[in-house]
Every structure is written in C-alpha cells, then in structure tokens.
Amino acid sequence: MRLADHDQIEIIETLTLGELSHFCHVRTDWVVSLVDYGVLDPLGGHASDWRFTPPNVLRARKARRLTHDLGLNLAGVALVLDLIEERDALARKLAQLPH
C-alpha cells in the first residue's frame, strides 16, 4: 500500500488510528465506530495500539464513500460491505468452475 504525502511516496504495512483517520479524511471517533460495528478489525488490543492492515484501509475508504455518497449509517455500511465481499467470493468461485 502506498501513502502519498505531497511528492513523497512511502510503502507502508499498516496504519495507526490517527494515520487511517487522516488518510480517509475522517475523525478518529468515526473509525472507532467502524471497529465497534465490526466493519474494521484492527490488530492490537486498545485503540492506542491499533494497526490497520491494507484490507482494513480499503474497507474504511469504501465505508467513507458509502456514508458520504449514499448517506448510509454504519449498520448499513457494514451490511453493504459484507454483501459486496460475499458477492466477490461467489464470483471468484463461479469463475473457477469448468465451462
């Protein structure tokens, strides 16, 4: 995953809570709510220790778009993201079947 800051690009493995909030242009309490709803599953026990892997960062960005663009609440975001992932998994399985 690449995190761009001005003209500098840095390869990162995980993001902290503050970094994820900054990257997604949201407040940290919104990210905490995503964790509470099960949308994100960070590494670490407490919010101050949380590390978000690239799949979590992508889910957070999708969640922000669903909230911002469609006006979904967090429960709706969680449901939509789970359904999208389920659809994608089924599409991958279908693609592996002999034609």
Describe this structure in words.
- The chain is mainly alpha-helical.
- The chain has one domain: Multidrug-efflux Transporter Regulator, Chain: A, Domain 2 (Orthogonal Bundle).
- 58% of the residues lie in helices and 8% in strands.
- It is built from four helices and two strands.
- Strands 1-2 form a two-stranded antiparallel ribbon.
- Helix 1 (17-24) crosses helix 2 and helix 3 crosses helix 4 (74-96).
- The longest helix has 23 residues, at 74-96.
- The radius of gyration is 15 Å and the shape is globular.
- The N and C termini lie far apart (35 Å).
- The mean pLDDT is 90.
Question: What is the C-alpha radius of gyration, as a whole number of Å?
Answer: 15 Å
CATH architecture: Orthogonal Bundle
Using the coordinates above, name the CATH class.
Mainly Alpha
| Topology order in helix (H) and strand (E) letters | EEHHHH
- End-to-end Cα distance: 35 Å
Which blocks of ≥5 consecutive residues have pLDDT under 50? none
Order of strands across the main sheet:
1-2
